Each structure stands twice: as C-alpha cells, then as structure tokens.
Amino acid sequence: MGKQLSIAFASFLLVTIAFTIKAQTIPANDAEVNAWFQAAVKPFSSHKRTLESNVIEAESGGVQIIDVRQDGKGKFKTISDAVKHVKIGNTKRVVITIGPGEYKEKIKVDRFKSYITFYGTDPKNRPTITFAGTAAQYGTVDSATLIVESDYFVGANLIISNAAPRPDGKRKGAQASAMRISGDKAAFYNCKFVGFQDTLCDDKGKHFFKDCFIQGTVDFIFGEARSIYLNTEIHVLSGDPMAVITAHARKTPTGEGGYSFVHCPVTGTGGHALLGRPWMEAARVVYSYCTMSNVVKPEGWSNNNKPQFQKTMFFGEYQNKGPGAAGKRAPFTKMLTAAEAKTFTSLEYIEAAKWLLPPPKV
C-alpha cells in the first residue's frame, strides 16, 4: 500500500512539475503574451506556494512607501535621499514612488539594501533619472546613472538615461552607461533605457525585463547576467559604421549567464547592426519570435575577430521574422529546434516561480 502511495505521489509530482513548466512557457503568438503573463505570474496574495521564504517575508504585512516629489509634496525631493532613508539590512519591501520630472542624480543602491522598488507614479509621464557620467570619469560599469547592487530590485515606469555626448571614436572613455544591475532576481516593467555605447550593463544575477525600450549603438546590452527580455523594443541608432546590440560575458560553457530575447522588436534602419558578439569566450545570446527590421546585417553575428571563441560561444535564433531575420547567417549561428528553444522561452530559465511578481500596484 505504501509503495502504491509513493508511486501515486511521484506521478502526481511529475504531472505538477510538467504542468508548471508548460504554464511558464511563453506563447509563440505575441497577441497571447499579456494574457499568458497574467496567468503565469500572479500577484503575491495568490502566488505564495512557490515563492522563496524570504520573498514571502518581504512582501507580507504591507509595504513601506516613500514618496519622492520635486514639488516638495513628498517625503523627499531626491531619489538619492529616499534610498539613504532605507535601512541597511532591510528585509521588507520598500516602494519609492517617484513623481514626474527630471531627476539629475547619480544613484547607487548598495548590496545591503534589498527589496527596493522604484515606481514611477504616472506610466504615461514617467520620471527621468539622468546623469552624464562617462567611462573616462568613473570606469565603464560605474559610469551608470543608476547602479543597483542589491537583490530583489524592481523598477517600473521609469526613464533611465545617460546624458553624456555620443562617442565619436576620438575621445577616450566616451562610453557611458544608463543602468547597471548587479543584484540577483530583479525585474523591470515599462522602463526606458537611453544611451549610446554600453547603455545597459546587465551585469550578473537573474533578471526579467517586460514592456521596456533599450536604445544604443555599440555593445549596448552587456554583461554576464542570465536574463529574459520579453516584449521589449531593442532600438539601434543609426550614424555609426557598425552597431552591436549585445556583448555577453559568460566565461565558461557551464556558466549560468545568457540573454534570452523573446517577442522583442529589433528596430532601426541602416543595415549596420549585429545581434551580438562575444565579450568573453562563452557568450550566450538567443533571440526567439523576434521581429527584426533591416537594421540587422545578413550575417547577424560576429566572433569579435576571435575565431577560437566559436567552440564555446552560443548564439541562437528561433522563429524570428522580418527583413533582418533573413539572409545568410554567420556559420557559427545556431538555428534552434523547438526542443532547444524551450530552455530560453520559459520563465523557468530564470527560476521565476521562486521570486518573480507582476508590476506593483501603488
């Protein structure tokens, strides 16, 4: 009897796991994505079963809200002051609501201040966080206007910009990041990242971007993180002889890192852009169900003049469309099968069931 119960429980568990993984798989039809997301990523009140215990603790019992308003009607006028107000070792969700306007600040959320949310109060009039730091001044990764090193960060309804001049190929250290995210388990919703070279340093950890916009020229999404970008426009600026969207930095084929773009329009004109090149020898980037304009060059990818990397890097595509998805790809490009693509088109890729919640409602 006990053995039969064990077998029955094991069968139930396998069915449950299979159902959970299927439920987390992003649909091929982009018109179904939002409804699927609402069903797959439920609010905290109905999503406790799979969440990590520390996430349950952080989200329980209400959240602390800190208002930032430039007109003086909030607790603080600057975002930096609001971040300073969060105690070191914080274990509860703190939502920093940010009113419309331009906030000229260089902000750092250090690793001891987890569970912070930056929430733009008006999705149609998003606050802009901007600064003009360059690699020459701070180093590339520390040039970012917003640096987040803590875990469980959420950004919603924001514009994050680096206002430094566009690199001209002559000035040394002219590259300038808008954002660096180095903490684990971070999510961004309806955010716009504006820059030229090195716009978004998607540095390390598991991350999720939905309904965002990322603009740049060269290596404008770079780092070693393991991230899903969903329904996020990747906009390539014209004017440079060559543009590169990603420069991934996975160091070994067994490393966890890798960018997965799903239902992401790749926009721009000029036929001068590459989908990616390796920063480190085992770079991993996959585009699935993406519509690509003719900004993308026919070969699609580069080995960055390091043919030895071709044995370890992983550049894949699955069911993309548009003029930029046509043409003869570089020979090391992997055209994935449905089975191979499943890894990159499921929320399981970032273990989302353990931590991911929908955009906050404040």
Automatic annotation (TrEMBL):
The active site is at D219. Its EC number is 3.1.1.11. Keywords: Aspartyl esterase, Cell wall, Hydrolase, Secreted, Signal. It is found in: Secreted, Cell wall. Residues 68-351 form the Pectinesterase catalytic domain. Pathway: Glycan metabolism; pectin degradation; 2-dehydro-3-deoxy-D-gluconate from pectin: step 1/5. The keyword Signal applies. Pfam families: Pectinesterase (PF01095). GO terms for molecular function: pectinesterase activity. It catalyses: [(1->4)-alpha-D-galacturonosyl methyl ester](n) + n H2O = [(1->4)-alpha-D-galacturonosyl](n) + n methanol + n H(+). Residues 1-23 form the signal peptide. InterPro entries: Pectin_lyas_fold (IPR012334), Pectin_lyase_fold/virulence (IPR011050), Pectinesterase_Asp_AS (IPR033131), Pectinesterase_cat (IPR000070). GO terms for biological process: cell wall modification; pectin catabolic process. Its main location: secreted. Belongs to the pectinesterase family. This is Pectinesterase.
